[in-house]
Amino acid sequence: MPDIPVADTSARPLAGRIALVTGATRGIGQATALALAEAGAHIVAIGRTTGALEELDDAIVTAGSTATLVPLDMKDGEGIDRLGGALYERFGKLDIFVGNAGVLGPMTPLAQIDPKEWDDTLAVNLTANWRLVRSLDPLLRLSTAGRAVLVSSGAAHKARAYWGPYSITKAAVEVLARTWAAEVMNISNLKVNLINPGPIRTRMRAKAFPSEDPNTLPAPEEVAAAILALCLPGFEETGRLYDFPTRSLKAFPVPV
């Protein structure tokens, strides 16, 4: 395989496949849901706002695909736990999981963070992804080519002042994904990878850097194309991080 994932050139490489995307109503999640839909996948779109999900559904239909809309807050752990069973009853499997939902959290010195804000950031960015792994892993193993992509951040590798909750949770998500990849490496068709989008023209980026000109940044659709490539059946790497700014795959040490 080349280091840089290349999208399948066939018109509908994901026809007949089921793809779940969290945080699907805006930004990278919305763009990824549409990219997967255009590639032929049926989209299970997870988001908090029903109206935004319905707008996404309209766009997916225009793209020639279909969607199942799931209004769900990532802090609703019991709702996440029920998700796997509901998907099994309806589809009998899951082919793709994109863990994109996340919050910036408080940008405050660690000693001054309100405990509820800390707990909420961990709940959305980290605990929800673990509960999704727990809920969706059996379904992904039933796919002939299960693919999971969790969204990380360059902040995971920087101990930048005032970014504590976000950076800490993204670093933990990377270890979560790598551990999952190691656990399924030799026993299933499931491949688990990470992506660092880098600076992208999103609402979260604008909140973190309000004086930055968003027009100088790549659009969410650009990173969505890279996520699509990681989700294709032909992409066989696992336990890797795709760094979108440098267009390169990073290998992690193999566990012994």
UniProtKB/TrEMBL annotation:
Q: Does the keyword Zinc-finger apply?
A: no
Keywords (A to Z) from UniProt: Aromatic hydrocarbons catabolism, NAD, Oxidoreductase
Protein name from the UniProt record: Putative oxidoreductase YciK
Known EC number = 1.-.-.-
- Organism of origin is Starkeya nomas
- Sorted alphabetically, which InterPro entries does this protein's record hold? NAD(P)-bd_dom_sf, Sc_DH/Rdtase_CS, SDR_fam
Pfam families named among the record's database cross-references? adh_short
KW Transferase (keyword) present: no
Which GO terms fall under molecular function for this chain's record? Answer: oxidoreductase activity
Family label: Belongs to the short-chain dehydrogenases/reductases (SDR) family.
Gene (UniProt): yciK
